[in-house]
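Reminder to self: tokens first, then the designed residues, so the page reads top to bottom the way the pipeline ran.
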């Protein structure tokens, strides 16, 4: 088994036990957990020193799985997901099947379909959505690379993915849009 697959297996063990991982996403290095496990999400809140009222982004490996976590996927979402040239997080109305503390007060949830090979395979093998939030304390600047992640974050997560080739990769956060049931679109971050 190569290093890549070995790291995926390690992550799955920790995620299955309700633990929090630090991992490379299709955008920035992220803190993640099982998006259906309320206690695991609470751990992320503590690590980030974040209020319970803020929602999280959830990562999926395939767009057809959206129907498991959104009651009614607006038609425009399918084209947006298929044709996005860079990572795109879409905030959907009426979330379902996720931990209550992943979902916003208005019952919406931000979901991104990943194209990155590590994330895609991790989610596929884990068989559940994974929370993705930047690896920083709330209100502090998001790290652009692994080397920018603070010691407090590194010390508090349960597992850190060890793929040295990805540690120096610098990336940007995803674009974020909010979709409404009526098809209206709000751009949150370009």
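Designed residues (190 positions):
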């Amino acid at each position: 088994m190569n290093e890549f697959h070995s790291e995926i297996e390690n992550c799955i063990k920790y995620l299955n036990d309700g633990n929090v991982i630090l991992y490379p996403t299709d955008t920035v290095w992220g803190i993640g957990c099982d998006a259906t496990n309320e206690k695991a999400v609470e751990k992320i809140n503590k690590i980030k020193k974040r209020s319970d009222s803020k929602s999280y982004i959830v990562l999926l490996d395939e767009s057809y799985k959206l129907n498991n976590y959104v009651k009614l996927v607006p038609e425009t979402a399918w084209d947006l997901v298929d044709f996005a040239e860079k990572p795109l997080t879409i905030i959907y109305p009426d979330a379902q099947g996720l931990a209550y503390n992943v979902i916003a007060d208005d019952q919406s949830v931000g979901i991104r379909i990943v194209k990155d090979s590590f994330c895609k395979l991790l989610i596929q093998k884990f068989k559940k959505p994974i929370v993705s939030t930047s690896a920083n304390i709330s209100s502090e600047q998001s790290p652009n690379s692994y080397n920018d992640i603070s010691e407090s974050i590194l010390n508090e997560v349960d597992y850190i993915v060890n793929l040295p080739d990805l540690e120096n990769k610098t990336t940007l956060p995803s674009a974020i849009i909010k979709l409404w049931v009526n098809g209206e679109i709000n751009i949150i971050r370009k």
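The longest strand covers residues 88-92.
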